[in-house]
Backbone:
């Protein structure tokens, strides 16, 4: 095993543990510490809550893993960096198929669906609020850091893709942008 392969494997293991274990554990701790202050439960019937949370968690995990596989197989790369450590080689080809035909950020979408499922399972308004803050932060981060990098790497191909595919919510139709003053047509 090469050092680069070991680094990628370690990156995926750490990222996977953060995604599946540590962030949900943090949601659990926050919910248990703060939910008593609010006293509101999201879904009072446990059976319904478990069914909705379980199916949502499965869907979110499936979407996130599907995006990793597509990025690796089609794009010949991965999520690039995690905490300033190269997790995988940078994608060589713009991926616009698989889950990427529905959203430009299927990995983030899948992760957020999974986190909302955890919040529902915990029946926690606090956890939902934290996931909403996390989602908002990540969307701003992606817009400011990943999109400029993808424009630099893939140019007009990425710009065309960005104009037709939703940034986050799959299947959400994109509205055509209205021309702004100074736009060239």
Residues:
């Amino acid at each position: 095993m090469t050092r680069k392969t070991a680094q990628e494997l370690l990156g995926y293991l750490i990222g996977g543990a953060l995604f599946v274990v540590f962030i949900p554990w943090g949601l659990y701790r926050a919910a248990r510490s703060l939910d008593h202050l609010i006293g509101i439960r999201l879904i009072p019937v446990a059976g319904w809550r478990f069914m909705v949370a379980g199916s949502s968690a499965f869907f979110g995990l499936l979407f996130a893993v599907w995006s990793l596989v597509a990025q690796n197989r089609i794009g010949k790369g991965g999520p690039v960096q995690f905490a300033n450590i190269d997790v995988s080689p940078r994608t060589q080809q713009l991926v616009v198929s698989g889950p990427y035909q529905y959203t430009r950020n299927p990995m983030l979408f899948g992760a957020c669906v999974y986190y909302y499922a955890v919040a529902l399972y915990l029946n926690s308004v606090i956890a939902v609020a934290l996931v909403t803050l996390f989602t908002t932060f990540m969307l701003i981060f992606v817009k400011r850091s990943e999109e400029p990098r993808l424009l630099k790497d893939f140019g007009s191909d990425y710009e065309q893709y960005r104009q037709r595919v939703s940034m986050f919510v799959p299947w959400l139709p994109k509205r055509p942008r209205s021309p702004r003053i100074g736009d060239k047509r």
